[in-house]
Structures are given as structure tokens and as C-alpha cells.
Design brief:
By secondary structure, the chain is an all-alpha fold. The protein is 67% helix and 0% strand. The chain has one domain: Mitochondrial carrier domain (Mitochondrial carrier fold, Alpha/alpha barrel). The protein starts with a helix and ends with a helix. Mitochondrial transporter that mediates uptake of thiamine pyrophosphate (ThPP) into mitochondria.
């Protein structure tokens, strides 16, 4: 007996919530590092200006690396600062994974039904990648607003609620603002497709005769699969975070250098992910395209490894509970 798409989705959502909670400070630092940008010189009138001369002086960026980011957050807000936006992030991650696993299970079931007349038919690696990308694309259409608001809360300094942030987005950009970064998200559908396609292929190659893997086996394959996907799509991940970042207005320091006060510069607002990528290349070159790669990999591989590890165990638990419920129902009918 196998789990239904809804049951697989619930298992995946619960597993992702557990995994992301364990490594959330890495997720927060990753977002903050990826959304900081080097400002253009005053000579440039726009990002497309031919006289554009980037200013990339040492120390221009606020956060040097993951440890520096976490240290600065701790200095200002303590340990709780490392978990700013945790609840919304966990909710968003769970919803996104629930949607993805539901559509992935459904797409694979439809594919299996189409080829059920062929004995022992197994999808190729290319087919696995396509099915994963298709499921991710469908899922993004439903869950994109959650990701936009979550990213804005992580980069918001005013401690606004999710509802307030949602209202701000609607006031500034209209309903389309909730789907800001949709184009790059559609392109990034190759990320989960690479991850899950690689995972399924590695599982078939290394453990062909096992329906359920052990925790360590699932974790190891999940880490490898996610690493490959992250390295391939990191520039797109950075540009997406930059598009979805909450914009801040320029605020002058009027407190005569009172300790703890600082001047906030107006953020550069990008309209497309290609514009964001161009800015990164002009100001920071390859380093900019792969900024935050360390926390991205650490967070990504651990979350994915833990997710696969928990998910397989949760699948087993769900099957056990379903069998138990059905057995009790069967016993009740006999009576």
C-alpha cells in the first residue's frame, strides 16, 4: 500500500518544518547576505546607464560572511534576533513543500498511469527532472505570495506583521507584487527538479531494492542532490532574494551619533532578475553572483538531508497509522 498525494504532501510539509526550524539562523543570515547590494556611483542615472561605474570599496557591504552576520544580529538583538521571522518562514516552507509534494506525487501518478501498459517501465533522468520542474512550477503559482512576504519579513527592520507587510506590498505594487520574482521562480523550478530528480536517480542506483531508506542513507543522498542543485542555480537564487527584499527609505541620523543609531540608505529596487544579475556582475563579479553560497549550501544541504531523512520515516509512520486505522475499521465491521 502506498500513500496518497495528500498524505505524501503532509509528510513532506511536516518534515520540512522540522528541518528548517533546526537551521533557521542560517536561513536568516543567507537572506540578509544575499539581499545586500553595492550602491552605484552618483554618476550613474540608472542601472542601464552606459556611464555606470560601480563603487565596490572594501567594507561597503554590511555583512562580510555568515559568522559576521550572526554576530551583528546577536550584538543588537541577542539570540532571539537569530529567529526573527521564524514562524512565518516555517509556515511558508511547510505550505510550499506541502504544495510541491502534492503536485509531484500527482504528476508522477499521472505519468505512471500513462505508461502502465509498458512492463517495468521507469522514467529516465530527464523525465524525472521534467516532472519535478512541472510540479514546482504549478506549486509556485499557488505559494509565491507566501515566499514574497516571508523574505520581506526577514529583511524588514520595522518589525511589521505578515498582514501589515502584505498590505504594504498591495499598496506599493498592487496584487502583482505578491508574485514579485515569479519569472525567476519559474526558472528556479529546475532547482527542486534537479534535487528530487537526482535523489530518485541516486536512490535507484545505490538502493534499487529498497522502498524505504534508513535515516543516514536518506540524509547522505539528500545532501549530495541538494548540493548539485544549489551550485547550478545560486545566481538565480540571489537575484530572486534581491527582487523580493523589502525596500527601505533613506533615514538620516539626527541623534548626534548616539550609539546604536545608524543611517539607512535607500535600497536599489530591481524590476527584473536579469537587471539584478547585471548589477551583481558589474559591482561584485562572480563573488556577487555567488554571495551567501556558504550559508545557502549549509542550510540547503542540511535541510534537504534532514527533510529526506524525516520524510521517509514519516512516510513509514503514516503507513503504520493508516494500516492501524483500517484494521480497526475492519474489526469493527466484523462485529
Amino acid at each position: 500500500m502506498s500513500l496518497s498525494p495528500i498524505e505524501k504532501a503532509a509528510s513532506g510539509a511536516l518534515a520540512s518544518a522540522i528541518a528548517n526550524t533546526l537551521v533557521y539562523p542560517l536561513d536568516l543570515s543567507k537572506t540578509l547576505i544575499q539581499t545586500q547590494v553595492v550602491k552605484p556611483s552618483e554618476k550613474a542615472t540608472s542601472l542601464e546607464d552606459s556611464t555606470y561605474v560601480p563603487v565596490a570599496t572594501p567594507g561597503k557591504l554590511k555583512y562580510k560572511n555568515t559568522l559576521d552576520c550572526l554576530r551583528q544580529i546577536y550584538k543588537k538583538k541577542g539570540i532571539l534576533g537569530w529567529y526573527h521571522g521564524l514562524l512565518s518562514s516555517i509556515f511558508g516552507t511547510a505550505a510550499q513543500n506541502f504544495s510541491y509534494f502534492y503536485w509531484y506525487s500527482l504528476v508522477k501518478r499521472v505519468y505512471a498511469n500513462l505508461y502502465k501498459h509498458i512492463p517495468n517501465h521507469k522514467p529516465t533522468t530527464a523525465t524525472e527532472l521534467f516532472l519535478g520542474a512541472l510540479a514546482a512550477a504549478i506549486s509556485q503559482l499557488f505559494t509565491m505570495p507566501i515566499g514574497v512576504i516571508t523574505t520581506q519579513q526577514q529583511t524588514d527592520k520595522s518589525q511589521k506583521s505578515l498582514i501589515q507587510l502584505g498590505q504594504d506590498i498591495l499598496e506599493q505594487d498592487g496584487i502583482s507584487g505578491l508574485w514579485r520574482g515569479l519569472r525567476v521562480s519559474m526558472v528556479l523550478c529546475i532547482n527542486p527538479s534537479i534535487t528530487y530528480g537526482s535523489y530518485e536517480r541516486l536512490k535507484q542506483i545505490l538502493y534499487a531494492n529498497k522502498e524505504f531508506l534508513g535515516p543516514l542513507e536518506s540524509f547522505s543522498i539528500g545532501v549530495l542532490a541538494k548540493s548539485l542543485a544549489t551550485l547550478a542555480t545560486q545566481p538565480l537564487i540571489v537575484s530572486k532574494a534581491m527582487l523580493q527584499k523589502k525596500s527601505t527609505l533613506k533615514k538620516k541620523n539626527t541623534s548626534n551619533n548616539v550609539e546604536g543609531d545608524e543611517e539607512e540608505d535607500e535600497d536599489i529596487k530591481f524590476d527584473t532578475f536579469t537587471q539584478a544579475l547585471a548589477h551583481l556582475w558589474k559591482t561584485e563579479k562572480v563573488k556577487g553572483l555567488y554571495k551567501g553560497i556558504a550559508p545557502q549550501l549549509l542550510k540547503g544541504v542540511f535541510v534537504q538531508g534532514l527533510l529526506f531523512m524525516f520524510k521517509d520515516q514519516l512516510d513509514i509512520l503514516f503507513l503504520f497509522l493508516l494500516n492501524l486505522v483500517r484494521a480497526k475499521r475492519g474489526l469493527a465491521k466484523r462485529r
